[in-house]
Write a structure and sequence with these properties.
homodimer; alpha/beta; 2 domains; 14 helices; 41% helix; globular
Amino acid sequence: MKIYNIALIGFGGVNRALTELIATKNSLWERDLGFRLNIVAVSDLYLGSVISPNGLDAKTLIEANFAKGGFGRLSGGSAEADNETIIKSAPVDIVVEATFTNPKDGEPAISHCRWALKSGKHVVTTNKGPVAIAAQELKALAKANNVHFEYEGSVMSGTPVLRMAEKTLSGAEIKGFEGILNGTSNFVLGRMENGLDFASAVAEAQALGFAEADPTADVEGLDVRLKVVILANELLGANLKPEEVSCEGISKLSPSDIDAAAKANSRWKLIGSAVRNADGTITGSVAPKQLPLEHPLAGVNGATNAVSLNTELLGSVTVTGPGAGRTETAYALLSDIVAIHNARSGSLAKDAA
Amino acid sequence: MKIYNIALIGFGGVNRALTELIATKNSLWERDLGFRLNIVAVSDLYLGSVISPNGLDAKTLIEANFAKGGFGRLSGGSAEADNETIIKSAPVDIVVEATFTNPKDGEPAISHCRWALKSGKHVVTTNKGPVAIAAQELKALAKANNVHFEYEGSVMSGTPVLRMAEKTLSGAEIKGFEGILNGTSNFVLGRMENGLDFASAVAEAQALGFAEADPTADVEGLDVRLKVVILANELLGANLKPEEVSCEGISKLSPSDIDAAAKANSRWKLIGSAVRNADGTITGSVAPKQLPLEHPLAGVNGATNAVSLNTELLGSVTVTGPGAGRTETAYALLSDIVAIHNARSGSLAKDAA
């Protein structure tokens, strides 16, 4: 049985949810997956950082109600989050990067990934920034250091779309995709179908905790754009940068647009898509589209996400599932660790029959 | 670069489609997947059998309009289909089993698989019979002979559901599933929603080639039952036999049932499902169910199939795609061969970053 020592970078909802899973599931994972996870270091801008070479108790980490700088009161702790030292020097196998997404330059998360990979540590992340902005560099670094860089959760939380394409659709020849990749905007569109105007629907999403105080990234398509870049680069072999993907959100849709769609047996959805052109180039876009009700994505409601992959040999294959959620996103990190474990330890033996 | 020598058992629509792909895609596969396929033997009840150790030309196999027993006129050919000799003695790496599904006892396909595995040959198959009826025995045989037994196409043609669960959802804790697993009955239900009675809808499906002369297996749920057994055994670790799964088809649904569902904002679907009970046992069932229109499976129309996996950590994840089709099913065979190739040759090296 294998124990992976891990460092949690960022201790917000996602890494807390992972810690909760570790507190309750380690024995199950040992039996079913062949490994346990041991939290050796945690770093968080608000709480500070801590390294405990023998491991921190997951249950205590969850239940202790740490105040600002609270990690400083732990043995091996500091009130400051010295991410660089933690990432470079903590004796861990895997760095779990779950800090905020910076859509501008991907920092500081890109640096976190870079430090970890250069130190010979695997990286698993749910952070869109490093994947959308620096995937090529980080994959090359991982390869050079013989470690993994895994990021299933950067697109649809735990719903597997990157690994589904890689592990189950090789040779199907993916030609393009279209997806509903932002739950907040999808929720807002649904409420507008129920009669609310855009501002009221956003206000309701905010009241319910689905939308942030500044909803721009969600409703103007910026979040979807990063996901389109990730999917296009991973699934279609593109090398797109975010600014190369056209981007229009849903804020200009009026109640009369919504009504007109309904009268035409259709429905507005914010669609992120990319397609391989005849000349081999890839074009990505984010825009509201009026889908006929029988379209496979028209029935994807609320905070659910979905991606339809258009393939040469198999036609359209769609995966639908949660696009957010603490535990759902923490599962993405687990699935990345499973992928690392299987690649490293006896997957040949296991796979043979 | 690797060449896999293969034997095609059954030369109906699916293996013909695979042969067409081989004729056109081998160079692409060599570049993108790392292997070529070389057809060394073919056997078919109607056409006879042929072994050609250096390989048969795929294009010729497709374009030659062989008459009954026609393989007998080829070098190394016989007008009789001696499957046992072909499978045991042809110098091949992989046996591609695509004969008819016998829902009663799985034969002769189970014997085909057994002979191949015992001869140290990998088996890929789209045949539900061996998987639903003899998977445990055949998996043990594969393991004992250090070869693979792969059967993605036994559930939803090339739409990956078995491999998706295995390769992308480890640790998500699948608790059950429900699916639309028969395109013919789904088509018939859709036509009944358009006003046809059951018999007329079936007649139309037959005229369009969606339903066979005897539609019993499709409309009475027998085909779905085999798929429920496969999914329950693979995804939930059950050990169900077909007769242990309750089975009710759609033939008793009347136009007034269809109307009543529509008035209740719902829709009848033939659902195959299984669930893990509190005591750890697994219950499978096939029955028409009235789904609310917002249910993720309610919008799956026509010949499309879908399975929703109910998971502990991730909630509901649904995969939707073709459930039939010559090329789509042939792709399942290719995806099985890709899985064998990756497990056998350097997936460790490839996966590391």
